[in-house]
From TrEMBL:
Classification via InterPro entries: AB_hydrolase_fold (IPR029058), Pept_S9A_N (IPR023302), Peptidase_S9_cat (IPR001375), Peptidase_S9A (IPR002470), Prolyl_oligopep/macrocyclase (IPR051167)
Pfam family of the protein (one): Peptidase_S9_N
Sections of the chain in a coiled coil: none
Record carries keyword Cell cycle: no
Cleavable signal peptide: 1-29
Span of domain Peptidase S9A N-terminal: 32-433
Protein known as: Peptidase
The keyword Cell inner membrane appears for this protein: no
GO cellular component, one term: cytosol
Top-level taxon: Bacteria
Length: 704
């Protein structure tokens, strides 16, 4: 989530992130673990291991005669200039975006008028060249977004990451002059949360002193910082505790379209998914009377918008409700909401955005996107479904503050991304741009099937295959899933996947297993803590269903997942290695008994449970890949990927996985990108490298 989104600058908030909040834990490293040195992120011994493993295993892929072709195809796709700009509304018909290509691998931040953007040759103006800045400052800056002060949006807080880390440096930038503001606001590197209050005041959650961080390294003290003040002079307005956080305590500023601030709040996470909101007042913070499983989504027409992840006060989990902000400020502890939207059992709210006069909601229905616009009148909320592409994955990219226009993107497995300008007031939709195809999809088809999990739950999954597929069980098949943090996996177009896999006869599958947000909070809650095995059972059920339908067989079935999905891959490796011949484990969690003390691990206790809790530890011990690796098993050769600069899911997990496999005599491939952050790719060239490595591996394992 960008800094701008955190401060409601874009006024669009998604359903969740892969690392949201936290609780503290007493879990300690296993005393008999010989690989704890891997947890020193850039320790000499750990780095020596990573570099040696890269040198040992990478030639197996890069010396394959197909690798060079894969790399060139992937590089051509990811650096193509015919990509759609990811534009945001500024003010008065001005758009901005961050653009990367072969000449600007780190990117440029640029601007254009909406009128010019609609033409065949838009007249872009560069605001900030990240490649040039990196060269000047001898740094590897990665763009992390900009938070611009409304209504003028001239002065912006630009976030830059060294090598792709979550930690950022923040500098004030003048978009009119294209220069950083001399003597302007500047926050040193850290995992800050911040927003503008006015031209001379920021509200910031930061590590004001080295000890002012949570168990997982995030800030919990919020202060106001005046122009010209040092960090030491900032005034405290809210304080959580060191046991709070995940992403730490965050400030929230609610504004009218003209920029007038109507309320300033702080969000205090209690654990991964429970939290409290506080209204910041001259007399001190006042707690809002919301349930702990509730998410503030935005502000429109005097109403604060909230989604519920639990039943509360007559409302149901998954509901979108609103509160009168004036009444909220008068009596913050006694809130009375009204219903905006109640999703059905097949639906889930994914995003909520606001324009000048409308609330815009992205809704999933059986994992297919819809966009609805809501307007409040004396009778309540009236809704209209907007005329946008059906059977597509949709995303609200940006909403207009001084009008009712919305920029949406649409895509599917076989349809490249298209960009739409929609008037939320009239429903009129205009296609702004669409991508040319990056692979030949003329012979491909997409189907949705349902597998039956161990407990009888029906689990949907998508299959992308050739129309001429012979159902003889011999198709090279790649299965992907995530299953956590209420994050939905919906159909997405990938030029690299299409060119390097589908065109060559591969089948691609996405499983919508529990733990995700495809069917709202209930789908996520079903896989938490003591119920975690349901997530993995769903995945195994889909794997077995693919075999049962004679799409593939274990010799031809490969799987891939990253982060929480990387943990899923580790569980698959240790529990059902007989089902798979290829496993790509990307930036994974792996040591789940020790995860709470590694990097930001304590931030995910609300998802997985606490190893210090006996009941929860028993479940974690049953699936933790690191502890369940055993000698003498028929494990397939796995491909483990991580990044040294990943300060979210620590590279120690991947390193320890490789070290334990090596100790037991197993064959494996390991790649640690020295830069890249949690995406494991800091620039487009690195992204192409990673794609080429992965598809070379898959070709060797599943097609040869």
């Amino acid at each position: 989530m960008s800094a701008r989104e955190r401060g409601f600058g874009r006024k669009i908030l998604g359903a969740g992130l892969a690392a949201i909040c936290l609780t503290s834990t007493a879990a300690l490293a296993a005393p008999d673990d010989p690989y704890t040195y891997m947890e020193e992120i850039e320790g000499a011994q750990a780095m020596e291991f990573a570099k040696a493993e890269n040198a040992r295993t990478m030639p197996r892929l890069q010396n394959d005669p197909r690798y060079a072709g894969f790399y060139e195809d992937a590089k051509k796709i990811v650096t193509a200039r015919d990509r759609i700009p990811s534009v945001d509304f500024a003010r008065n018909g001005v758009l901005r975006d961050h653009w990367q290509d072969a000449q600007h691998v780190r990117g440029i931040w640029r601007t254009v008028s909406l009128a010019s953007y609609r033409t065949a040759n838009p007249e872009w103006k560069t605001l900030l060249d990240i490649d040039a800045l990196s060269k000047t400052e001898n740094a590897n800056w990665v763009w992390k977004g900009a938070n611009c002060l409304r209504p003028s949006e001239r002065f912006c807080l630009v976030a830059l990451s060294n090598g792709g880390k979550d930690a950022i440096e923040v500098r004030e930038f003048d978009a009119d002059t294209g220069q950083f503001v001399a003597g302007g606001f500047k926050l040193p590197e850290g995992k800050h949360r911040y927003s503008w209050i006015d031209a001379d005041t920021l509200i910031v959650s930061a590590a004001w002193a080295p000890t002012d961080v949570t168990t997982s390294g995030y800030p919990f003290i919020v202060k106001t910082l005046k122009r010209g003040q040092t960090m030491a002079d900032a005034k405290e307005v809210y304080r959580g505790t060191a046991a709070d956080g995940g992403y730490g305590v965050s400030p929230v500023v609610l504004r009218d379209p003209d920029g007038t601030v109507q309320a300033v709040l702080a969000h205090r996470p209690l654990d991964t998914f429970n939290g409290e909101y506080y209204l910041i007042t001259p007399g001190g913070p006042k707690k809002l009377g919301l349930p702990t499983r509730a998410t503030l989504r935005g502000y429109s027409s005097g109403r604060a918008l909230v989604t519920l992840e639990q039943d509360w006060a007559g409302f149901k989990e998954g509901d979108l409700i609103d509160f009168d902000l004036a009444a909220l400020k008068d009596n913050p502890d006694t809130l009375k909401g009204t219903l905006v939207l109640r999703p059905t059992k097949t639906q889930a709210v994914q995003q909520v955005g606001t324009t000048k006069d409308r609330v815009v909601v992205h809704l999933l229905d059986n994992v297919k996107g819809q966009i609805w616009a809501f307007k409040r009148d004396a009778k309540g909320w009236a809704s209209t479904r907007l005329d946008v592409p059906k059977d597509s994955t949709l995303k609200i990219e940006s909403t207009e503050e001084d009008g009712d226009k919305v920029i949406l993107s649409a895509q599917s497995f076989l349809q490249p991304s298209s960009q739409w300008l929609v008037d939320a007031a009239t429903g009129k939709a205009e296609k702004l741009q669409s991508l040319p195809a990056k692979f030949d999809a003329s012979n491909q088809v997409v189907e949705q099937f349902w597998a039956t999990s161990k407990d009888g739950t029906k689990v949907p999954y998508f299959v992308v295959r050739s129309k001429n597929l012979k159902f003889d069980g011999n198709a090279p098949t790649l299965l992907n899933a995530y299953g956590g943090f209420q994050i939905s996996q919906s159909p997405a177009y990938s030029g690299e996947r299409g060119k390097l896999w589908l065109e060559k006869g591969g089948v691609f599958v996405v499983a919508n297993i529990r733990g995700g947000g495809e069917f709202g909070p209930r789908w996520h809650n079903a896989g938490l803590k003591l119920d975690r095995m349901r997530v993995y059972d769903d995945f195994f059920a889909v794997s077995q269903d693919l075999i049962k339908r004679k799409i593939t067989n274990p010799r031809k079935l490969g799987i891939v997942g990253g982060s929480n999905g990387g943990l899923l891959m580790g569980v698959a490796l240790t529990q059902h290695p007989e089902l798979y011949s290829a496993i790509i484990i990307q930036v994974p969690l792996f040591d789940m008994i020790g995860y709470t003390h590694i990097g930001a691990g304590a931030s995910w206790v609300g998802e997985y449970g606490d190893p210090a809790n006996p009941a929860e530890r028993k479940v974690i011990e049953s699936y933790s890949p690191y502890q369940n690796l055993k000698p003498g098993k028929l494990y397939p050769t796995v491909f483990i990927e991580t990044s040294t600069k990943d300060d979210r899911v620590h590279p120690a997990h991947a390193r320890k996985a490789a070290a334990r496999l090596k100790e037991m005599g197993y064959d494996y491939i390991y790649y640690e990108n020295i830069d890249g952050g949690h995406a494991a790719a800091a620039n487009l060239n690195e992204r192409a490298t990673r794609a080429a490595l992965e598809y070379t591996y898959l070709t060797q394992r599943l097609m040869d």
